[in-house]
Automatic annotation (TrEMBL):
The lineage of its organism: Bacteria, Bacillati, Bacillota, Bacilli, Lactobacillales. PROSITE patterns: CB, TYR_RECOMBINASE. It comes from the Bacteria. The keyword DNA-binding applies. It holds the Pfam family Phage_integrase. Keywords: DNA integration, DNA recombination, DNA-binding. It comes from Lactobacillus colini. CDD domains: INT_ICEBs1_C_like. Gene3D superfamilies: 1.10.150.130, Intergrase catalytic core (1.10.443.10). The keyword DNA-binding applies. SUPFAM superfamilies: DNA breaking-rejoining enzymes. This is Integrase.
Amino acid sequence: MARMKTRYPNVYVDEKGKFFYQIFIGENSEGKKRFKKGRRDAQKRPFSSAKKAYEEAKRVQQEYLNIAVDDISYAKFMKDKFLPKYKGDVEESTYNTHSRMFDKAIDFLGDQPLKQISVSDCEKYRTWLLTDAGYSQSYVSLVYTAFRQSLDYAVEINLVTSNVSLRTKSVPKGKAIEKYWTKEEFEKVLSCISTESFYENAIYMTFLFFYRMGCRVSEGFALKWSDVDLENGRVRIFNNMHYRSKLDYEIKPYTKTDAGKRTLTIDDELLQLLKEWKVRQAKNGVYDFVLSFDDCPLNKSTLSRWLKRYAEIAKVPRINGRGLRHSNASYLIAELGADILTVAHRLGHKSPMVTLKYYAHMFPDNDVAIASRMEGSMKIKPAKVSKVSFNGNQNISGDKINGMPKVCQNKKKVV
């Protein structure tokens, strides 16, 4: 049955215009998510508005919580209520990453009653994150935002009346500059990798592929030879990898954004190396993944370890997997002079504005070059004889002072 969202959380309208709610009420003993759907209020009357459905949804959800509001601690609230709900709302990979951020607040506030968390407590937590915790400001910004999000949910399910953390200042992300390798630095790295061994050849091809193609790490890890057209030099980037272990992974049939699904042209140099790499993989029993040495997908920790090792050997700045993507952007813009639309397409951005947001500083400053090209680019010779008949004060000829209007002669000279 078709349904449309309303402006109220968990409230929808069906194809007949009837309002109903659907709420998450936890997990069963097997970890399966449980939802409750309702079309009538406590008096068994159909909902007359989305707001009525929302109010009933909150009441029912409170019943299912079945907890003593005054006694529940922040840690118990997070463990029993927020985290299960959050896990149901997001991708598994997102949950695994962000749950560590929520753990910071759980460790700091612990058994403190949820209802007794004050503005002062929030301020202490914020100060600890910015000082003694030892985190970067950009990471602190994410962690404190996650904490605020948890208290927003406590308000939503009527465990507290207001989110006191909103009365403290947010933590600005600061100006974090992502490290990347210039073409010269990347050439130094490649010159330190021997392709004599199959294992190092895998490292060489992984670095080169990411640097030349600019795909996201999860997109590159998900690539199979079935995605690569070696005949016509094209690669389809339509998937991303959710990695748990070598034998436990999932290829998701989508990318970060809709624009992330793209087909890119492979340059002839890289194409030839890919053809040779596929043959060498087959000789070593690898047939499936493009960037693999054991027919299993790579993972971020392995890539990070490789990048660290060869950065130290080549004596260049250490970067992470995302840094390879930034390196590709720099290569396209600074070295190849690619235009903004081409860069946006190859990186899989949803619009050129996203590209400019992150990479505007990489585009060359053409101010001097443009000014130089203006010289002699057009005819700027004035007419020898006026083609307009002027009258009044406008009828002035020559450069003699007597030819100037009196109103100008009487003005004082301004220095």
